[in-house]
Amino acid sequence: MNNKKKAFQSVLPATVAACLISMSSSAYAADNSDPIKVGVMLPFSGVYAGLGESTRNGLKQALKEQGNTIAGRPVEFIEMDTEAKPARAPEITSSLVDNQHADFVVGPVHSGVAMGMIKSIKGKDSIMIIPNAGANAATGAFCQPNVFRTSFSSWQTAFPMGKEAYDMGYKKIVTMSWNYGFGKESLAAFNESFTAAGGEVVKKMLVPFPKTEFQSYLTEIASIKPDAVFVFFAGGGAVKFVKDYDAMGLKGKIPLLGSGFLTEGTTKAQGPASEGVITTLHYADTLDIEKNTSFRQQYEALYGKPADLFAVQGYDAGQLIAAAVTATEGNTSDKAALIKQMEQLEIDSPRGAFHFSKAHNPIQTIYLRKVVNGQNTVIKTALENLEDPARGCKL
Ligand code: PHB
Domains in the chain and their CATH numbers? Predict the structure, then answer.
């Protein structure tokens, strides 16, 4: 794909890895038994709790593969519940960065929380790895040397669907999401490519976050009778929305489209209501990639349930930490050196290998997917190696 350094293309058994470490690591790593501190800022309660749990599971899976040590140093996790509340972000970030001196802070899920975290971590000696939140500004106008993202930008996940929707024959569409940064940016990105293709967004609906009372909006959609509906909802909100859409009799009459979060980690709870929902995302359960198969098998063995995208993104945050700290032979005190390594890495992700743009966002392929028998199944590649435009980033 490119000449980037590979991040753990093959994983050594922990015993072999430990033996190699003791034979070959630098004096620094051999002498340093201080833990590598990883702050974890995720929602463990509220409407995004399931996303937080999957992300943490994936993160821990990646580090377990390294025997929970990197270059001979143990890894310590400090977990904080953001509750997906932006107001909590500055206080928690500051406690992890200024009091605990975390080497890395992994989080969050919610874009509003991300923006608060970025303000608090700017210029500090900790590296933030965003395993989900898509706010365009995180790797756009507010991009920072010490902020990386293993997930996506809002633009990346919704822009490809506009053209796909038009090509499917839909000319008049209603768009709908929660009324906060990520939702609004997703609708804007969809609108950008849909109108460029010739389509028209006949109505945009915004629901206060995290409300899940959708009936009045669905009644209005039924009366508008658009060709299709494009939405962003996730977690508990996605479960409720897809079930309500069916219960109100819209399924089968007005096709439901979304960015892929609508059906990620939710299809079991959504049941038959999710069948046929079409989305765009940088991952699908059924991706025929060796790394995806082995990742999913290990995840299921560890946690007793299938992996989803959020687990993949957490796993890749863990892979990124492990690869970067290995490359600096366990030295985490020189953050500029760590950042340099991170910028050069290729991450062997279950979604397919990726590397970072100059703004520190993954350059990645976006798939068009359909729920078939409860699984997000690839219909086709929507856009290959899509790079976020990183509008306003000066890195
Ligand atoms: C976000 O707020 O950026 C966000 C939240 C949940 C998702 C995707 C993005 O599933």
Answer: 33-152+287-360 (3.40.50.2300), 155-281 (3.40.50.2300)
pLDDT digits (tens, 9 = 90+) for 316-350: 999 999 999 999 999 999 999 999 999 999 999 99
Query: Tokens representing 363?
Result: 């350059």
Total number of residues shown for the chain: 395
Instruction: Please name the amino acid found at residue 256.
Output: L
From the CA of 67, how far away is ligand 1's center (Å)? 30
Identify the CA nearest to 115 among candidates 91, 146, 94, 136.
136
CA distance 104 to 337: 14
The DSSP element (H or E) to which 10 belongs, if any, is none
Question: Coil, strand or helix: which one is 94?
Answer: helix
CA separation, residue 374 to residues 166, 239, 369, 377 (Å) = 25, 13, 12, 9
CA angle (139, 141, 143) in 5-degree steps:
40
Count how many Cα atoms sit within 13 Å of the Cα of residue 332 in the half-sphere of its side chain: 27
Bridge-based pairing of strands 364-372 and 354-355 is unpaired
Pairing type for strands 69-70 and 278-281 reads unpaired
Mutation probe of ligand 1 site: the residue of 182, 184, 309, 376 with most atoms within 8 A of C-beta: 182
Q: Is the pTM of this model over 0.90?
A: yes
Among 42, 110, 281, residue to substitute to test ligand 1 (most atoms within 8 Å of Cβ): 110
Q: Which two tokens stand for residue 278?
A: 């079409």
CA 135 to ligand 1: nearest atom: 3
Instruction: Give the distance (Å) from ligand 1 centre to CA of residue 376.
Output: 18
- Per-residue pLDDT tens over the stretch 206-225: 999 999 999 999 999 999 99
Which residues line the pocket of ligand 1, CB cutoff 6 A?
A: 51, 109-111, 132-135, 182, 234, 261
